[in-house]
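Record type: monomer structure entry
Structure origin: computed from sequence
Chain ID: A
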Amino acid sequence: MHWLRERIQNEGRYLGNGILKVDVFMNHQVDPLLMQGIGYEFARRFRHQHATKILTAEISGIAPALATGMMLQVPVVFARKNKPITLSQEPYQATAPSHTKGGEVTLMVSHEFLSPEDRILIIDDFLASSLTIRALVDIIRQGGAALVGIGAVIEKSFEGGRGALADLGVQVESLAVIDRFEGNKIIFAE
């Protein structure tokens, strides 16, 4: 995934407090060709899991999840942070802290989009503390679906999220793993 590392190295900016800004290609402006490559790579790594749906968190997880869904030819469901008036019954929901917004957010998924027959692949932009992914796992369990894998575009390994997911017993893949920040320099894991 050298091409992704290069983009992060050249265009990402470390803002301090563990926050990496990648809004040039993923979190505000989206590079479609980069997302296509990300979707292809996740599809290659998870194809054997036979996911029936992909779940992500609104907003920044949508682009990589959609690209992966296109490659695997499965629907993409995103957990909403605000309840729309069109949601008639109480949704599955779980809370997670937000690094970038501060405080907690409630993630919600309508009952009609998760069922016990579903095999769910989680795709998100970052794996850091794992608390957002844990909230998505909670929602999957509420719906009676099976979790079959977790993919993150960028992992901040120094926050321990991967280890915190070990008890789930599923395949966890990250396309670029950051070991640490040294000043403004991004140091990738080997």
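Annotation 1: DSSP finds six helices and ten strands in the chain.
Annotation 2: The helical segments are 2-11, 23-27, 32-46, 62-72, 131-142, 161-164.
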